[in-house]
Design a protein that fits this description.
114 residues; mainly alpha
């Protein structure tokens, strides 16, 4: 199992990190088995675990970088035509809101004169 963890850890570096998930599982199972039975292979299991975890982290960083780059590209394309939104509809100009939109007379103004 330690050899399998090592092979999956190496393969995970090149195959989108998916084999690394199995490499982590096999690595932990093989370390438990090695501890119980006293077999050889502890260094291979540890290296397999390190490569598997490293593959997962590297591929997640690559995915985050890629999604951020694509998002920035789309944002720059949308903003390349100022004055219109994504669908070509003209933007509404920013107009400050009037705190008192209606001219409502007060009670003193509407009361009859005496």
């Amino acid at each position: 199992m330690a050899i399998g963890a090592l092979i999956l850890g190496i393969a995970g570096l090149f195959l989108c990190g998916l084999p690394s998930l199995l490499g982590v599982i096999l690595g932990h199972v093989s370390l438990g088995q090695i501890k119980r039975t006293g077999e050889d292979g502890r260094p291979m299991a540890i290296i397999g675990l390190l490569l598997s975890y490293g593959g997962i982290v590297l591929w997640l960083l690559l995915l985050l970088t890629w999604s951020f780059t694509i998002g920035e590209f789309v944002d720059s394309v949308v903003d390349s035509n100022p004055g219109e939104d994504y669908y070509g509809v003209p933007d509404v100009p920013d107009v400050p809101l009037d705190p008192e939109p209606f001219d409502v007379p007060t009670a003193e103004e509407t009361a009859p004169a005496l």
